[in-house]
């Protein structure tokens, strides 16, 4: 009788444990290798690497600031454009739309997430860039041209185009996470508000108040995606390492720099500089994602404890 | 007798399922009316027709009329928001907002623009908390989270929140079913107290509770109103055999 299945169970346990362990090892190995390869660049440029404004591989001058600037700015543009749209879609799907309409819309949103980023890039080059050059850019210049943000020549390739493409790409993920978070808000919260004579708008505000930290988590998750996005950005941002006030000017991001330059980085210090800037990106996205997960978890915990109270 | 609420020939459907059949009853002002009956008999559904809370269910449909103060609340063009302000509701599970104790009570006052200034708002919040017999327990921590209160306190907070918008009718859907006996007793005392100013309709599973707090009792079964009589009569000498069987615990 004894020990019938115990041996098999132990082997099985060991296998799944090894699988779980491997993910930690992989992450650790990636960091270790990147760090090691980045050491020459770190030793040579020190902390100044992060603040240097010139990127001239031929002269062995490597400053990461334009890329950090480009990454941050394009991501912020993406968030500004995407947050209201994503919130709007999610609120409509959860609070307003009848199921018959909600399902196909939710499906379309998820479909957006499945489009390969190179396709977004192509769409950016052939549709969005001309649109910005011919219509959106001139319109912004005519109405808001007094701002430095909208001055200068409009080529259609540049920071704004990249920001809009990124906005499109992060909208599905923000929408679907916000939707889950809103659905997790107990129905009794809506009823409580309605029973006090709240309008639909006021009831929705109560729901959003319940979901606030989860929504923040969704936004940070979207930010993580925007910061790390490579292909579509490379195709539309212009790949020029400059820090310009105008959103019509070309710029560059860390991810895009890496994608475009690895093949030609032949000497050691060039390669090392690229890896160091990659390490910066890795750490930033890692922290952003961890932060997002924490925020979303805190909502799940709160709504669970409310359910059991 | 002038009724506060007059229900005539009310049918209620979830899709093609009929949940209530031809309900007619008169609720007088400033009395406590208890709805009793076995689970699924439609008493909660009926309660929620009185402030149109069932509107949130897409497939729900109502026939017949509910007249409150001379107006049919199911007439086209009815202002549902104003109706719900007049007919407040307390739910089975306490559902405070994730706000402070003060802001929970202030919420309804704010959205309905009832207060004239900050001092008036504070006064109204205090009065509502006093009416709900909660003031003494929370007056020193009005700004802390409502989730820090015990279950019974949370439920009284929800009652205070409902009272703060000055409703005329308060609907209570098994307000004490999740509470311990002492918290339940407090809620019951409160219900009797509130009768001076409000018309109260309370759904309860607990027949002793109905007997203790209500002036009249309505007994529902399988979506039909079996009997509606003064509570005294209901529990001593009911008209219907079915009521007697239920009250004496022969089924249910």
Would you give an account of this structure?
The complex is a heterodimer of chains A (309) and B (252). Chain A has 309 residues and is an all-alpha fold. Chain A folds into 2 domains: 45 residues; 259 residues, Orthogonal Bundle (MetI-like fold). Chain A contains 11 helices and 2 strands, in the order ααββααααααααα. Chain A has a two-stranded antiparallel ribbon with strand order 1-2. In chain A, helix 8 packs antiparallel against helix 11. Chain B is of the alpha/beta class and 252 residues long. Chain B is built from 10 helices and 10 strands. In chain B, the strands form 2 sheets. Chain B has a 6-stranded mixed sheet, sandwiched between helices. In chain B, strands 2-1-4-5 form a 4-stranded antiparallel sheet, covered by helices on one side. The radius of gyration of chain B is 18 Å and the shape is globular. The two termini of chain B are 33 Å apart. The interface between A and B is medium-sized, with 23 and 29 residues.
What's this model, at a glance?
Chain A has 309 residues and is mostly helical. Chain A contains eleven helices and two strands, in the order ααββααααααααα. The longest helix of chain B is centred in the middle third of the chain and has 14 residues, at 118-131.
């Amino acid at each position: 009788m004894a020990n019938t299945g115990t041996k098999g169970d132990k082997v099985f346990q060991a296998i799944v444990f090894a699988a779980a362990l491997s993910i930690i090892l992989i992450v650790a190995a990636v960091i270790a290798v990147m760090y090691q390869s980045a050491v020459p660049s770190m030793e040579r440029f020190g902390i100044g690497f992060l603040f240097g404004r010139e990127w001239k591989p031929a002269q062995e001058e490597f400053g990461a600031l334009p890329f950090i600037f480009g990454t941050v700015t394009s991501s912020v543009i993406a968030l500004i454009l995407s947050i209201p749209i994503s919130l709007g879609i999610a609120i409509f799907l959860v609070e307003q739309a009848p199921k018959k309409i909600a399902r196909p819309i939710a499906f379309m949103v998820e479909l957006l997430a499945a489009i390969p980023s190179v396709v977004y890039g192509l769409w950016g080059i052939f549709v969005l860039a001309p649109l910005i050059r011919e219509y959106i850019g001139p319109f912004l210049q005519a109405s808001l041209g007094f701002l430095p943000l909208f001055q200068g020549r409009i080529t259609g390739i540049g920071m704004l185009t990249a920001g809009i493409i990124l906005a499109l790409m992060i909208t599905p993920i923000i929408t679907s996470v916000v939707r889950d978070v809103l659905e997790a808000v107990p129905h009794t919260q809506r009823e409580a508000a309605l029973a006090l004579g709240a309008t639909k708008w006021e009831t929705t505000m109560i729901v959003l108040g319940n979901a606030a930290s989860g929504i923040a988590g969704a936004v940070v998750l979207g930010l993580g995606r925007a910061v790390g996005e490579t292909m579509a950005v490379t195709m539309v941002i212009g790949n020029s390492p400059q820090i310009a006030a105008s959103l019509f000017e070309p710029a560059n991001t860390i991810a895009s720099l890496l994608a475009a330059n690895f093949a030609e980085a032949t000497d050691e210090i060039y390669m090392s500089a690229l890896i160091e800037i990659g390490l910066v990106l890795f750490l930033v996205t890692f922290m952003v994602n961890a932060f997002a997960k924490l925020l979303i978890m805190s909502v799940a915990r709160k709504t669970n404890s409310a359910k059991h109270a | 007798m002038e009724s506060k609420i007059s229900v005539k020939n009310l049918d209620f459907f979830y899709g093609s399922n009929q949940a209530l059949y031809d309900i007619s009853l008169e609720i007088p002002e400033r009395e406590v009316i208890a709805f009793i009956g076995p689970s699924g008999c439609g008493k909660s559904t009926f309660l929620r027709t009185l402030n149109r809370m069932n509107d949130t269910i897409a497939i729900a449909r109502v026939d017949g009329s509910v007249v409150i103060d001379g107006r049919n609340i199911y007439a086209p063009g009815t202002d549902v928001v104003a109706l719900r302000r007049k007919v407040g509701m307390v739910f089975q599970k306490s559902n405070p907002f994730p706000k402070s104790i003060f802001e929970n009570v202030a919420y309804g006052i704010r959205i309905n623009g009832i207060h004239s200034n900050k001092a008036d708002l504070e006064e109204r919040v205090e009065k509502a908390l006093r009416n709900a017999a909660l003031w003494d327990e929370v007056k020193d921590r009005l700004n802390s989270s409502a989730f820090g209160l015990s279950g019974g306190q949370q439920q009284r907070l929800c009652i205070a929140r409902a009272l703060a918008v000055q409703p005329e009718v308060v609907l209570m859907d098994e307000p004490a079913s999740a509470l311990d006996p002492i918290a339940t007793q407090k809620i019951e005392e409160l219900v009797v107290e509130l009768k001076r100013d409000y018309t109260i309709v309370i759904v309860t599973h607990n027949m002793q509770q109905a007997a203790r707090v209500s002036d009249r009792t309505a007994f529902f079964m399988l979506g039909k109103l079996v009997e509606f009589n003064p509570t005294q009569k209901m529990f001593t000498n009911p008209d219907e055999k079915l009521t007697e069987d239920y009250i004496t615990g022969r089924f249910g």
